Amino acid sequence: MKRFCLILSLLCAFSCFSANAQTQCASLLSEDYVSDGQYYATTIKNYETKQCEVTFIEGNEYRVIVCPHNAKKVQMQIIDVDGNVIFNNKNYDYTNYWNFRIKQTLNCTIRLNLVEDNVENDDLIVLIGFKK
């Protein structure tokens, strides 16, 4: 019974974080962007890499947002299928979003890393929106 209560408590805590973080992330979409409807959430440890595969459709303008729970800096790279780094927020003081226009449909990987030594693990949310 104690184990069940512990698991239930952990699920509730993660759900509360997810709801708050998703709301904060969604506010970065602003009035100009609409969510693609996907919700990418993960827990990441320091020195670990997490990634998700996405397809960006030709002719759209996108905003990709990464929202950590505790960390101030998360490295976000967007990489094409040939391994070319299209965007690396390390070059932009670890900004948590990037706006861009796609000229041709592109399959990509969004790669995430914690870069702060004092954060052992964190929960991350990635949202993708396209311009209205």
Structure, described:
This protein has 132 residues and is α+β, with helices and mostly antiparallel strands. It has one domain: Sandwich (Jelly Rolls). The chain is built from 1 helix and 9 strands, in the order αβββββββββ. Strands 1, 2, 4, 7 and 9 form a 5-stranded antiparallel β-sheet that branches. A 4-stranded antiparallel β-sheet has the order 3-8-5-6, with no helix packed on it. Residues 1-18 have low confidence and may be disordered.
Please give the CATH architecture: Sandwich
Order of helices and strands: HEEEEEEEEE
Radius of gyration: 16 Å
Counting helices, strands and paired strands, the structural category is alpha+beta
Q: Tell me, what's the shape?
A: globular
Report the mean per-residue pLDDT as an integer: 84
Number of helices: 1
Low-confidence stretches: 1-18
**What composes the largest sheet?**
5 strands, antiparallel
Please give the CATH class.
Mainly Beta
Helix content: 10-25%
> What is the strand content?
over 45%
CATH topology value: Jelly Rolls
Distance linking N and C termini? 49 Å
Number of strands: 9
Task: Give the secondary structure arrangement, pairings included.
Elements: H1 2-29, E1 33-35, E2 40-45, E3 49-56, E4 61-68, E5 74-80, E6 85-88, E7 97-101, E8 106-114, E9 121-131
Key phrases:
alpha+beta; 5-stranded antiparallel beta sheet; Jelly Rolls; 4-stranded antiparallel beta sheet; 1 helix
